Structure formats: C-alpha cells, structure tokens
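Q: Focus on the shape:
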Amino acid sequence: MEIEAVKLWAAMGAIAIGTIAPAIAIGWIGSRASDAIGRNPEAAPKIQTAMILAIAFAEAIAIYVLVIALSIKFV
C-alpha cells in the first residue's frame, strides 16, 4: 500500500473515532443538564454555566483530533 494511502486512512480513522466520543459526551451533558434543570429550576443559571463549560471542553477534544488528523495527512 502506498504511504499516502496509509496517511489518508489514518487521518480518516482519527477523525471518525475522535469525533464520536465528543458527540456522545455533548449529548450526555445536555441530557443530564436538562434533567437537573427540570428537578431544580432555580439552579438553572448555575447548571447552564457548568454545562456550557463542559461542552466547550468536550468540543476541544474534537478540535485536537482535527489537528492530529491534519498533521498525519500533511506531515
């Protein structure tokens, strides 16, 4: 197999696997935050702030995977 093809498959695999976990995490965080707000509506601002921060950290993982995939492909 040609080295470029291996790089392409590695980048594709990194993106495919590396975006599944953050997507699941963001869905789980949103679900749990909705449950918490439903149980205690007065705490909604605190819960929403923590939820947005957690979603940003989960999304950062996907950005790191994108950087790794691009470095695999172009280096």
